Amino acid sequence: MAQLSDDAFAFGGPLMSVEEACAAVAARVEAVSGVERVALADADGRALAADVVAGLDLPPFANSAVDGYAVRFADLAASGETVLPVAGRVAAGADAASLATAGVAIRVFTGAPMPPAADTVFMQEDVGLEAGCVRLPAGLKPGANARPAGEDIAAGEIALAAGRRLLPQDLALLAALGQTEVAVRRRPRVAIFSTGDELAEPGAPLPPAAIYDANRMALRLLVARSGAEVVDLGILRDEPDSLTARLREAAGECDLILTSGGVSTGEEDHVKAAVERAGSLVFWRVGIKPGRPVAMGVVAGAPFIGLPGNPVAVFVTFAFIARPLIARLAGATWTPPRPTPVRLGFSYRKKSGRREYVRVSLTTGQDGVPLAHKNGQDGAGVLTSLTRTDGLVALPDDWTTIAEGAIAPFHSHESLIG
What we know:
CATH superfamily of the largest domain: MoaB/Mog-like domain
Helix content: 10-25%
């Protein structure tokens, strides 16, 4: 399990930006130990443990990119048409090594190996046929419609670099290189639980003044999409001694402890005190809305993140703070989601020194630039503000008065969940 000193996240001073908070984690958290070889079909979303070097050229032989006729460019007339006899036929998977190509054309099909010394292919729809010969038009460039060996990647090149989070296209490349397995980092084990006496399990009777626990469902799926193994510890009640014991137990089994609720400074927010008894807790003074409070700490050597209790705040802080930390634990190179520019269809005022993520729906503007419409309800507890919108507009830290028509960065919900 990850082991950190109790003061690993100590920080004081002014509000941290989201980028500074993520950098603080990256500087202090190391990837989990342990490497395993898994079948390609089981490697989707896993972090590559070592560089993969191509063991062969891809494609492994020169081949035709089209159905047509392969020739030596040197046999073509300097101007005007060229007429050559058709002296052979090569389909995909056939052997062309014995074919003579001087002064003749060879009928080839897409993916077929290029005959010896042939270097150019005419598409079948561009030629004329007559009495066993093919009439070839002028103007084709040498090498046209022919794929050289190693066009995709050459033997000895790094095909995929260590730390890459493997995607289906990556695994297709490894399969094309003849691999059946790949070395990946083991998945980090992430303990999650919700806290609060007001929470009930979905499906159970709902007591008076209680609400169903939605945060744990969101966190289970978000953590899994991030490439980690989920250890669901359920709902923990507001009992300081029990919270402390469960945190210590989780730290012994998991690489990260992730909670929602109970990390503010209220009299009934007991997670803060429990973490301080089991390890140390230093609140991140992060300028983010929705999202405060967010806490970072260490419990028996394991990193701890305490997310807010409101579900929209959970979604936002997980996307921009917890997800990069899980990627770091998994040994994956973290690339922040790339926003796209949109035009704001609303005006807004905010405090300086704080990043605000506004839930919006998009339409197409008259100039083709997407137009962002602010959701009518923007409370941190309004789940429908996520289900009825397309994503989040990020209003930069130093913006205060934002006019309608301004251009701002937009993150789709899909880009934020992995």
